[in-house]
Amino acid sequence: MADIAGLAASAAGGGLFGLVGTVIGRIAGVVEARQAQAQERARWVHEAEMQKLRVEADAAGRAADLRQTETSGAWTGLSASLAAEAAIGESYKWVNAVRSLTRPVLTVLLWGITGAVFLGADEAGQAGIVDTATFAATAATLWWFGDRGPRRDMR
Known about the structure:
Blueprint: H1 2-88, H2 93-120, H3 127-145
Helix pairs in contact: 2-3
């Protein structure tokens, strides 16, 4: 009988030990799954942040390309304007005098119109008109006189 009791105790001890091992294994599996999920969440957050940075970098690159295109177009236009003026050549003195006074007269008139619009505009309703007139006068002045200094020979 002692053999049967020892055998039963061994079986119960082995079963209990196997059950405890299974529970520990399951708990370890749950902990591993939670860690894997936390790592996956951290990876998703990192990937989302990287995608956001990629989108911002792409937008900044497109803005830089647009600025470069605008600048290149402005310089091309100015070069074409200067080349067209240089191609006119000399004419009668009075024609040259009228041609040389056109830009200053137009500039003074444009600034006069801008001043009249500024003084005649009320504060709320016509702010856009004042802004537009100021923009036009400034752009015309800088376009017409911005690069009119004496040329140096770069040889």
